[in-house]
Automatic annotation (TrEMBL):
<dbReference type="InterPro" id="IPR000960">
    <property type="entry name" value="Flavin_mOase"/>
</dbReference>
<keyword id="KW-0274">FAD</keyword>
<dbReference type="InterPro" id="IPR050346">
    <property type="entry name" value="FMO-like"/>
</dbReference>
<dbReference type="InterPro" id="IPR036188">
    <property type="entry name" value="FAD/NAD-bd_sf"/>
</dbReference>
<protein>
    <submittedName>
        <fullName>NAD(P)-binding domain-containing protein</fullName>
    </submittedName>
</protein>
<dbReference type="Pfam" id="PF00743">
    <property type="entry name" value="FMO-like"/>
</dbReference>
<keyword id="KW-0285">Flavoprotein</keyword>
<keyword id="KW-0521">NADP</keyword>
<dbReference type="InterPro" id="IPR020946">
    <property type="entry name" value="Flavin_mOase-like"/>
</dbReference>
<comment type="similarity">
    <text>Belongs to the FMO family.</text>
</comment>
<keyword id="KW-0560">Oxidoreductase</keyword>
């Protein structure tokens, strides 16, 4: 099939690769002169959304990798240059550039009556040309139109910038700065600006859930992302019906069988592991080194970049996270995460002031807050995210500009599987790239007519949307958010045939235990199914380790699965995972 891909960032690159795996004829249009999307920087890119100078990933390279090009080694973090290098290596390894037309801006997309697509493209010489395709994948991402629609700031006489324009803190030295909004990028922006400004205030409407990048002062926090934990948080701890299909969601009997067997295997593995450790033949726990996973000295112990692992910091984060759920308990989170707490020390030491009541009005350079306080500022920095903008489509509408109205956040119900919006989903804890890869694998199989979208498509869309909205109820504007990356990916894997069948797991206890209780590893989606990499992927999963006592962790998860949800902890606390 002749397929168009728009954008050569991470989502576009993996989409090209999955399509050529299925022998489709692929043409990708990329507006920049090279691959990388927001990770690709040029000296004159200040009017574009790009990675800022000192950006460090908020999840480890292991979680930001594609399943067909896994990051080797530990769950270390890298800066934006390191991740761009990874994408360049991926592109070179699979020879993807030959499918990309650079300096090509897509101006318009037209869905023809026969189901085909006309793509209007402007090249670097401003020449316009129209191309025709049988299927289309839009991979240009949600970071297109900065949200500047903040009515209160229209009367501000000072300078206003959006976080998409931020590169470094040089222009904020000695300034009085107001930052509006708090998410992952604004956490870095807050820290950097407050280090050099005369004063820095952050105005927030709600408290995002704070998640340090390091646990036990050393390891990547995402190493505690496990299926057993997600099962406890978003299935076991609620009466709200789980709508996605996964390992054990087919019927009541299989659910019970699945949990019973995996718990039995887990219990049996505990004494075997203890014996192995006694005789020095079990090496399943991560080893300490003098450098933590963020590349900083391990001592003094840290929870994040420049953020020491002190009781004061841990207590602050715990109090903040309780506030995020308005005292209702955060064991099962219902709000977006900020996987970056490096700004916390500057709140504690007074460099950052938190304003929680919101802006009442602005007069000149004076901002009046709703608690009747006021303050003069030189600059306002908008960390307010991006607007949903699908105006590039001439005659296709995405209902309410909400990607939850697409199947798996990707497939338009009116286009017979020939339109995919890939990479417009953001897991609250996890990476976009593997989500985009699995959407792309689904799309490639649809284009090959190896699978079809479900017959009850609209019913499935609505049920999955309700489940997501329930668990994201405290972040209703973030319609791209997904509470559990693992559950989302498992559900896609089941439909495209790369989900390990339950009977095979029953016959492979070690793999079953690793898949359920140990750190999530997306290589599991290359053990079975189309374009598998069985031996290499099997070793990836079987070699996974935990940064804590794995026997104790498994026992705790097994006990939680047997107890009624009413006796589960009310809140997640850092005191359990961030002591020295």
């Amino acid at each position: 099939m002749k397929v168009c891909v728009i954008g050569a960032g991470p989502s576009g690159l993996t989409t090209i690769k999955q399509l050529i795996d299925e022998n489709h004829e692929v043409t990708c249009f990329e507006k920049n002169e090279d691959i990388g999307g927001i990770w690709y920087r040029t000296p004159d890119d200040k009017d574009q959304m790009k990675a800022y100078d000192n950006l460090m990933l908020t999840i480890s390279m292991k979680m930001m990798a594609f399943s067909d090009f896994m990051h080797k080694g530990e769950r270390t973090f890298t800066d934006h240059k390191g991740y761009l290098k990874y994408l360049q290596n991926y592109c070179e390894h699979y020879q993807l550039k030959q499918h990309i037309q650079f300096n090509s801006m897509v101006e318009e997309i037209i869905h023809q009556a026969d189901g085909s697509w006309s793509i209007v493209v402007r090249d670097s010489n401003a020449h316009i040309k129209t191309y025709n395709f049988e299927a289309l994948a839009v991979c240009s991402g949600p970071f297109k139109k900065p949200n500047r629609e903040i009515p209160e700031i229209k009367n501000f006489s000072g300078n206003v910038i959006h976080s998409s324009e931020y590169r470094n803190n040089r222009n904020f030295v000695g300034k009085k700065v107001l930052v509006i909004g708090l998410a992952e990028s604004s956490a870095d922006i807050l820290r950097e600006i407050s280090n050099v400004s005369e004063s820095c205030t952050v105005s927030i409407r709600s408290h995002t859930f704070l998640l340090p990048r390091l646990i036990y002062g050393h390891y990547a926090t995402d190493s505690l992302t496990t299926r057993s934990h997600h099962h406890e948080m978003w299935i076991r701890s609620t009466g709200f019906k789980y709508q996605l299909k996964s390992f054990s969601q087919d019927n009541w009997f299989l659910k019970k069988l699945f949990i019973s067997v995996v718990n039995l295997y887990g219990l049996l593995s505990i004494p075997l592991k203890l014996i192995g450790k006694l005789f020095g033949i079990d090496h399943s726990k991560k080893t300490l080194s003098s450098i933590n996973d963020m590349g900083q000295p391990a001592y003094p112990s840290k929870v994040d970049m420049y953020t020491e692992n002190t009781k004061e910091v841990r207590d602050f984060i715990d109090r903040w996270n309780k506030t995020s759920h308005k005292g209702a308990g955060n064991w099962s989170q219902k709000i977006i995460f900020c996987k970056n707490v490096s700004f916390v020390p500057n709140i504690i030491n007074g460099k950052i002031k938190v304003q929680e009541t919101g802006i009442d009005y602005i007069d000149g350079n004076t901002v009046h807050f709703k608690d009747t306080t006021m303050q003069a500022f030189d600059t306002i920095v908008l960390c307010t995210g991006f607007l949903k903008d699908f105006s590039i489509f001439k005659n296709i509408e995405i209902k309410d500009n909400n990607v939850r109205n697409l199947y798996k956040h990707a497939f338009h119900p009116d286009c017979n599987g020939r339109l995919a919006m890939i990479g417009f989903l953001r897991p609250i804890s996890g990476g976009i790239p593997i989500c985009a890869e699995m959407q792309a694998r689904y799309f490639a199989q649809l284009c090959s007519n190896n699978i079809n979208l479900p017959d009850n498509l609209m019913e499935r869309i609505e049920k999955e949307k309700q489940w997501e909205e329930h668990w994201m109820s405290l972040s209703p504007r973030h319609t791209e958010s997904m509470p559990s990356q693992i559950m989302f990916l498992d559900a896609i894997a089941k439909e495209i045939g790369c989900h390990i069948p339950m009977w095979k797991l029953l016959l492979h206890p070690k793999l079953f235990v690793k898949m359920w209780f140990y750190s999530f590893n997306q290589a599991c989606y290359r053990i079975e199914g189309p374009h598998s990499m069985r031996e290499e992927s099997m070793q990836e999963v079987l070699n996974e380790k935990l940064p804590l006592n794995d026997s104790l962790f498994m026992f705790a998860m097994i006990v939680l699965s047997l107890l009624p949800s009413s006796v589960h902890p009310k809140n997640i606390s850092l005191r359990y995972v961030n002591t020295d």
